[in-house]
Amino acid sequence: MSAVSTKKKSKIVLRAGIWYTVSSFMTKGIAFITTPIFTRLLSSEDYGKYNNFVAWIGIIAIVATMDMHATVNRARFDYENLDAYLSSVAITGSIFTAFLWAIVLVFSDFFCDLFSMNMTCINIMFITTLVSPSLTLLQAKNRINYKYKAYVMLSLGSVVLSVVVSLLLVVLAENQLMGRIIGHYGTVFIIDLCVYIYIIVKGKNFKWSECTYALKICLPMIPHLLSKYILNQSDRIMIEKFCGSSDTAYYSLSYNCAMIPIMLATATNIAWSPWSTEQIYKKNYEKVKKAAYYYITLFFLVILGIFLLGPEIVLILGGKKYASATSIMPPVVLGAAFQFIYNLYVALEQFAKKTVGMAIGTVFAALINVGLNWLLIPKFGYVAAAYTTLIGYACLLVIHFFLARRIGYAKAYNNKFIFISVFVLFVIMLIMLWLYSQTAVIRYIIIVVGIVSLSVVSFLNKKTILSLLKK
Prior knowledge:
There is one protein chain. By secondary structure, the chain is an all-alpha fold. It folds into 2 domains: 187 residues, no CATH class; 214 residues, no CATH class. Helix 3 runs parallel beside helix 10. The longest helix has 31 residues. It is globular and about 60 Å long.
């Protein structure tokens, strides 16, 4: 490739990366900034029930669609006609969803009790899931081809529309819970259906060989994905069972505080993942390691900022009635930091197509989490769930580090730096829990000192920072 072509491609990659990050952060941000509105419009009981619905639909989506959109990043190296591949994968997801839905309809009484919801809500879950992989499939294709304009329009458009419709229905509907559910998931279904039809028409393909290609990668990952999701959501499901909808609402509010780092991780990973995968494919490990150092440092600084502003964030999101959620916010946010790190290692395992060990490790961590929840939530309430989930994420981090090292890809990161940083964050979390019981002035002084110090360091190293940004 000529120098001119290389430079041109670099500009496209940079521009796409910036827009992927901005778009993802904005889509997550819209959901985040509307949280204070919904917590005030809905009763704490309805807010808790809605989060229980969200938890279960995520589990259904993983089991039914197997997260096959994650194979697109690898399939681009193995298939020339990516549109045909997307068509096969989309149809496969629908077939599996319909099969599971039929089972649920036959044993409806059992599943109503299991999900703690009526059949109307359960049917909405499956109708939505029938076409749910379509948008993520198309977005995965747009991302790897650096079609950032289409990506941004689809991402922002779907989120804005679903939020607007949800707000209208919550305000106007007599049953506010159903207004929230139908407003969001009904809108998402219509958008996904349109994209689904587009994928099928453009691909005009359904090949069993392409289905088996995706299934070989995804089937071993189902236990991993499901266990990972259980780590994220089982606490809310079990709080709903043992403590009731109101306590689920308090815990969910604290979890929404963790949405800030999760938003950042998701947004930046959209740009990071295709770039790092390409560099690892070319065996440019040192290049990835150097970039990861700054990537991780930036993320951990955000975590530190959230720690310092924890009580204020809870007050803004939920108001005074959710003030008790402040005590569990630090461990929940630290769990988000652990997620960010172990997902770096998971991406290496996915690239190497070594997903069996990944599944076993994640199942092990999820079983620990569920077992601890079962023992501790009835005794200590929803507070226990924050710490049991943190333990589960810590297990995942250690497990996936060793798995990545075993396949020879852990060298892409500075592992010593990562684990020292994680330990420092844990110590800071303990200090923050103590600071929350003290006068807020102490935290404000630390914040001011931190901002000034960071500004001075940035100014003194502005040439280096600008150079890195250009690269």
